[in-house]
Amino acid sequence: MIFPTSFALCFFISIATVTAQTWTTVPKWADFGLYGPVGFKDLDFKLEFMMDNYEIISLEKCLRNEENMDHMTEKHFVNLTSKMRALRPDAEVKILNYWAVMFTQIHCYEAANDLLANPNLWLKDDLGYPVYSDKRGNAYYDFRMEEARNLWIKAGIDPVLQTNGGANGVFLDGTGRKKLQNCRLKTCGEDKESCCVFSKESEQAFNEGLYLAVESMRDLLHEIDPGYILIGNGLMNGNGNTPSEELVEFLDGFCFEHVMSFEGVDKHAEGPPFIKIVELEKYIQLKNLLVEKDKYVFVRSFPGPVGTPINHVGGFPTPQLPENYPYPKPQNNLEVQQAMKDLFAFPLAVYLCAFADEKVFYTYSVWYDVSQSVPCMGDQKKCQFPADFDEYLKMNPGPPLEAAKWEGRVCSRRFTKFGISVNLEDENSATWFP
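User: That's the sequence. What structure does it adopt?
Assistant: C-alpha cells below.
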C-alpha cells in the first residue's frame, strides 16, 4: 500500500463544495466512555485530545469515576462537557448526549429514579405484567402513552440543556422498529422470567408511539437550537435492521456501527474475502440514500474484520479476528496498537472512496473505552490507541473532487491532495496516488 506524502497538484474541476467538514483531516467522529479512576486519569490530556481530533463526540452511557455507576451518567456528561469547552473554547466540535430507546443500563442514569417513581408509565404486556429491563426492578418506558413519551424525551434532553450550550444534541441508541411478539422479551409474569405477551396490535401501537417520541425529541432539539442534531444508532444490515421511512424522516442522521465487522463478517471463512461484500454494498447504497436526504452518517470500522467473541486484552473488551485471518490476534495492548496501525489502510480507503461525503464522518477504534480512542499520556501499555498515529490522525485529503468511480468492485476517487483506489474484495489493495 502507498500513502500520500506531499502533493503540489492543481485540479480544475468544478463540483459542489462540501461544507460540513473542513477536510484538512479525515472527518472523524467518536463514541466512547470514561470508566472508573483509570478512565478519569490524566483527564485534561484526554479531553484535549478528543477536542483536537474529533469533530463530533458522543459520550457513552454509564460514565463514572468510581466503581459505583448507578445514577451517575447525567452528572458526568454535564461536567465533562463543561470541561471540554473550557479547555478548547474555540473548538467547533459537536458533543452529543448518549440516550437509548430501550436498554438494560438505565440504572446508570438519574432518570431511572423518575421512571421507577411512575409505575403507571412502565411498559406492560397484554396480561398486565411489567416488562423489566434488569434484575434491579427497572422497566421500560411505554411509548404508547404520551406522558411516558414526554418523560423519556425529558431524560434525553435535560443533560443537554444543563450544559448551557456546551452540548449539541443526542446520540440515540437502539433505533429501529421493536419486535415484542413471540417471547422476544422474557422478563414478565409472577416470576419475572416468563414470556412477555404482546399482540400484533400492541406491538404496532408501541412502535407508533416510539416514532412519535423520536419526532418530538428532534423537534424540541431543533427548537432549542437549529444546529442541534439527533442521531440514530444501530443500522446493521446483516440483521435486516434498515431504517423505516418514518425514522429516516424523524432523525437527523444514522450511525453505521459495524461496517465490515460483526454481522458483516464471515468469521468461518477459510480465506479472503472475510468481509461480506454484499452487506458492505448495502451500507454504501444506504449511505447514498441518506446523503441525498441531507442526513448525517457516522461510519464505524475496526482494525480488521473483527467480531465475536469479545475477549479482554490488556484490561479492555476486544473483538476478535476470524480464526483463519492472516494476522496474529493481539495478546496485549501494545500488539493491539500495532494492529491498529497495520490494518487501518483498508477500512480507511473504503471510507474515503465509497462513503466520504458531506456530513459523513468516520471513526476507527477497537471498542468503546476512552483508552481505545485516545492514547495514554504516560505508559503506553495501558492503552489500545497508538500514541504515534499521525498517518491516520493528520492525513489531509482535502475536499473530494469527484464522486466514487466503480469498475466492478474496484473503487477509485480523487481528493484535492491525493487519489485513492481500493478493491472491496482485497484487503491489501488500498493505494494512495498523486
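The first strand starts at residue 29 and ends at 32.
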